[in-house]
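Researcher: I'd like a candidate sequence for this fold, 155 residues long. If you have to choose between options at a position, lean toward the conservative one.
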């Protein structure tokens, strides 16, 4: 076996990523977070979150709404806003994103969702990984998943 001198070993560890781990972006911080959703149907989407899910407006303008439900928030924005970077200009295409709501009684919410006439895309079911859930679609195609955790995932 080849013997390394301490300086050569340290250089080899740094070169291969075996050295000290860099701090993460949020090291020492407790960030808040909210999803943003760019939609062609700002008013309809805003009304859905307020009237069907119980969110309240925090801020509204002709092109943006920030809504809140308890400690949760969501930003809704019209597409093609001139002041926005290009990555924030296109409306959501309807695939590849979801928001999960962790709730204590998903069965109760499922019955309410049916009574409200929400577009249920996944009927209430139990998953082998410990979720009992159902899913609906908001205006513009954003999937919303309502979950009660069971088994090993339960709090």
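Model: Candidate sequence:
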């Amino acid at each position: 076996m080849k013997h390394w001198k301490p300086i050569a070993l340290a250089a080899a560890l740094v070169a291969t990523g075996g050295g000290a781990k860099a701090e993460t972006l949020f090291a020492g911080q407790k960030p808040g977070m909210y999803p943003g959703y760019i939609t062609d149907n700002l008013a309809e989407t805003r009304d859905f979150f307020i009237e069907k899910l119980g969110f309240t407006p925090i801020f509204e303008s002709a092109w943006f709404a920030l809504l809140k439900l308890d400690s949760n928030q969501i930003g809704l924005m019209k597409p093609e806003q001139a002041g926005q970077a290009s990555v924030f200009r296109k409306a959501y295409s309807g695939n590849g994103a979801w928001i999960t709501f962790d709730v204590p009684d998903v069965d109760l919410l499922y019955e309410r969702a049916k009574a409200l006439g929400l577009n249920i895309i996944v009927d209430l079911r139990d998953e082998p990984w410990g979720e009992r859930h159902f899913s609906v679609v908001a205006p513009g195609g954003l999937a919303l998943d309502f979950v009660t955790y069971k088994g090993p995932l339960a709090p």
